[in-house]
């Protein structure tokens, strides 16, 4: 569908809304599976990135498992048709209710974040008379070279168990008949684009494997987490991340022993580029030397710029439709929420724009809808799917 046709449809829909290009999603899932399949790797999709039911339908059809970080995500995954054995449950603060729920569902593995959590899982498994499959999440002290809020693998982070704190874990795994040790879990952060970070991670996993083997603990599962990033600056040039490069890097640096299964928890890299946040200009506000494009989407719909100071590419789709002569001005693109942080871009070179123009804030398929809120009692943005637009078009 051309930009002109798409904008004509968008103009009739109340803004803001998320637009999900399911064709791009399917292509991304296929290419990720093909790249992982070359090495018999398994992908468990991270629901925290986007748990929209129609997105999950496509993920399930692609043959992926589910990575969950709450009891509700476990329930959503099972309800979406993922087999419980393909559901992994991570997260540093699992409640007793969530653990019991996951035991009842018969999930494939708990990724355990602390010795204290392992004790609770063992107790609840004993009470339920159900052996709990567990992998131990290690904090490997690997700097992901990403934003401090999404780095998870250094000793100041709350996630995982440090190597020097593993002895009581070894002891409990050895003596308990209610814990089925599967392997180790590593996740060092998010939006990682430097392959050297993953090389270093693999080196640490190789060392940690030897540590567990010396304790007599056989490892059948290596869960290397996710974290592979996307190109937020060039979503049209790079709509699908280079999964070939990512998995080849892992293959070249990870020691995989016979009988082991290697899993990944990709999220952002699978869904970010398929989603745009569509918004409308309410006002073109002049204030001294600055020009503000005040739009009807806000940090309640996409909090990443406010939370992480990230930049998403922004396009004026109405300008593209009209094909006017390009007249660029410096603008700040801001939302209506009563917070100064409710800003999507500052000093942006942008085409001359008018009230009512339709803008697309790109790469919003991950952590947009899932992190939305009703702050200022704002309504939730709706979702529009490409499949429905194609069907509805005469």
Structure description:
By secondary structure, the protein is an alpha/beta fold. The protein folds into two domains: 3-17 and 273-392, Lyase, Ornithine Decarboxylase, Chain A, domain 1, CATH 2.40.37.10; 22-272, TIM Barrel, CATH 3.20.20.10. 32% of the residues lie in helices and 22% in strands. The chain contains 13 helices and 16 strands. The chain has helices at residues 3-10, 22-37, 53-61, 71-79, 96-105, 115-128, 167-175, 195-214, 243-253, 268-271, 304-308, 317-322, 386-392, and strands at residues 17-20, 42-46, 65-68, 87-89, 109-112, 132-137, 179-185, 221-223, 261-264, 275-287, 290-295, 314-316, 328-334, 343-351, 358-361, 382-385. Strands 1, 10, 11, 12, 13, 14, 15 and 16 form an eight-stranded mixed beta sheet that branches. Strands 2-3-4-5-6-7-8-9 form an eight-stranded parallel β-barrel. Helix 4 packs parallel to helix 5 and helix 8 packs parallel to helix 9 (243-253).
Report a brief summary of the structure:
With 394 residues, the chain is α/β, with parallel strands linked by helices. It is built from 13 helices and 16 strands.
């Amino acid at each position: 569908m051309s930009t002109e046709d798409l904008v004509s449809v968008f103009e009739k829909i109340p803004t803001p809304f998320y637009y999900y290009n399911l064709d791009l999603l399917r292509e991304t899932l296929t290419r990720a599976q093909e790249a992982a399949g070359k090495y018999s790797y398994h992908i468990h999709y991270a629901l925290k990135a986007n748990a929209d039911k129609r997105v999950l339908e496509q993920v399930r059809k692609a043959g992926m498992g589910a990575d969950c970080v709450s009891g509700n995500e476990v329930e959503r995954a099972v309800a979406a048709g993922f087999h419980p054995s393909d559901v992994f449950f991570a997260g540093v603060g699992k409640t007793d209710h969530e653990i019991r729920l996951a035991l009842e569902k018969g999930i494939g593995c708990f990724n355990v974040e602390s010795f204290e959590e392992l004790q609770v899982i063992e107790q609840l498994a004993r009470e339920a008379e159900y052996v709990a499959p567990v992998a131990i999440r290690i904090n490997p002290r690997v700097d992901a070279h990403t934003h401090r809020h999404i780095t998870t693998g250094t000793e100041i982070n709350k996630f995982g168990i440090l190597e020097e704190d593993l002895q009581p874990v070894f002891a409990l795994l050895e003596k308990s008949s209610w814990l089925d040790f599967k392997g180790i879990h590593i996740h060092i952060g998010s939006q990682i684009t430097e392959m050297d970070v993953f090389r270093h991670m693999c080196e640490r996993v190789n060392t940690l494997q030897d540590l567990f083997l010396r304790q007599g603990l056989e490892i059948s599962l290596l869960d290397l987490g996710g974290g592979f990033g996307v190109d937020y600056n060039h979503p049209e040039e790079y709509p699908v991340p280079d999964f070939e490069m990512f998995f080849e890097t892992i293959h070249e640096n990870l020691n995989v022993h016979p009988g082991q299964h290697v899993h990944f928890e990709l999220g952002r890299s699978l869904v970010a580029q398929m989603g745009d946040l569509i918004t409308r200009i309410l006002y073109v506000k002049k204030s001294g030397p600055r020009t503000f494009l005040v739009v009807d989407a806000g940090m309640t719909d996409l909090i990443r710029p406010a939370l992480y100071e990230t930049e998403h590419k922004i396009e004026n789709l109405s300008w593209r439709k009209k094909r006017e002569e390009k007249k660029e001005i410096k603008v700040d693109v801001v939302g209506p929420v009563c917070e100064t942080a409710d800003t999507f871009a500052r000093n942006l070179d942008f085409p001359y724009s008018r009230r009512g123009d339709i803008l697309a804030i790109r790469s919003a398929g991950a952590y947009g809808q899932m992190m939305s809120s009703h702050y200022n009692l704002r309504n939730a943005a709706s979702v529009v799917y490409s499949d429905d637009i194609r069907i509805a078009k005469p």
